[in-house]
Specification:
GO terms for molecular function: DNA binding; DNA-binding transcription factor activity. InterPro entries: GAF-like_dom_sf (IPR029016), HTH_MetabolicPath_Reg (IPR050707), Tscrpt_reg_IclR_C (IPR014757), Tscrpt_reg_IclR_N (IPR005471), WH-like_DNA-bd_sf (IPR036388), WH_DNA-bd_sf (IPR036390). This is HTH-type transcriptional repressor AllR. Keywords: DNA-binding, Transcription, Transcription regulation. It comes from Natronocella acetinitrilica. By secondary structure, the protein is of the alpha+beta class. The chain has two domains: 61 residues, Winged helix-like DNA-binding domain superfamily/Winged helix DNA-binding domain (Arc Repressor Mutant, subunit A, Orthogonal Bundle); 174 residues, GAF domain (Beta-Lactamase). The chain has nine helices and nine strands. The strands form two sheets. Strands 6-5-4-9-8-7 form a six-stranded antiparallel beta sheet, with helices on both faces. A three-stranded antiparallel beta sheet has the order 1-3-2. Helix 2 crosses helix 3. The chain is elongated. It starts with 25 loop residues before the first helix and ends in a 12-residue tail after the last helix.
Length: 280
């Protein structure tokens, strides 16, 4: 039994899956807490480990999991003994996404990104074999990057385009190259399939990509993708600025800021990054 701290001790009980708040249903709170914990373990988790994590007895955890399993929100792998979220969570997550405008949700985070970096931030989605700008927060600097909403840029020589490609399969990349080749805008544009794959592999490990004057001389861009509930790429967010201000070292420093912003957008829309993305 969990005992409340005595009055005057100055201690407060730590809230977990078993927390009991006035006006709430304890069993529902616990079940939702378990579901949230399961969502953090895409490979699955043992019942005993899950019980310890949420602060419940193993017997209580098992009863709650059995109820979630019956409703399709949890599933047990009989061979490994691992519990995972169930298929029913997909329809709930999809309903959430259908009712959310990710551009509007991301807007405050893009403002924060522009404030933190001093550079223009953009959002782009993939349409066919191009990246299309759909949102922007301009820098207040006199010299700044600017792209009109609706502008299309090649996937292989733009920051947002490369970010949108980071999690594409090898077959998809090969098919893209067959259709479009490697458009060249500057002497620094990616000019070989091997170089493209190297840039994408680095982007997957870092969680962000850098366009180093590949689309426009004198301009750099740092971009990162964000993901939906299935781990599929939704769009990319970026910062762009003149190389005199966005130096190579500063671009690397801001890479983690852009990647963190993309991760926050992913969280805000109820998504999750795919396994192996941003591991470094």
């Amino acid at each position: 039994m969990v005992r409340r701290a005595s009055a005057g001790t100055g201690q407060r009980r730590k809230k977990g899956a078993g927390s009991d708040n006035p006006g709430t249903v304890q069993a529902l709170n616990r079940g939702l807490g378990l579901l949230a914990a399961l969502a953090q373990e895409p490979q699955g988790v043992l019942l005993t480990d899950l019980a310890k994590r949420v602060g419940l007895a193993a017997s209580t955890t098992h009863r709650l999991l059995a109820t979630l399993e019956q409703a399709g929100f949890a599933e047990l792998d009989d061979m490994s003994g691992l519990w995972r979220v169930g298929v029913r969570t997909v329809s709930v997550g999809s309903a959430f996404l259908r009712g959310r405008d990710f551009v509007a949700l991301a807007r405050p985070l893009m403002r924060g990104l522009t404030d933190a970096s001093g550079e223009t931030s953009n959002m782009a989605i993939r349409r066919d074999d191009a990246a299309v700008y759909i949102s922007q927060v301009e820098s207040s600097a006199m010299v700044r990057a600017f792209s009109k909403l609706g502008d299309r840029v090649p996937l292989t020589c733009s920051g947002v385009g490369l970010a949108l490609l980071t999690m594409e399969s090898e077959d998809d990349i090969s098919a893209l190259l067959h259709r479009t080749g490697l458009p060249s805008f500057t002497p620094k544009s990616i000019d070989t399939p091997a170089k493209l794959r190297e840039v994408l592999a680095l982007g997957r490990s870092r969680g962000y990509v850098i366009d180093d004057e590949a689309h426009a001389l004198g301009m750099r861009c740092v971009a990162a993708p964000f993901f939906d509930v299935h781990g599929e790429t939704v769009a990319a967010v970026s910062i762009s600025g003149p190389t005199a201000r966005l130096t190579e070292n500063r671009a690397l420093e801001l890479g983690s800021v852009v990647a963190r912003t993309a991760r926050e957008i992913t969280d805000r829309i109820g998504g999750r990054p795919p396994e192996g993305f941003g591991v470094d």
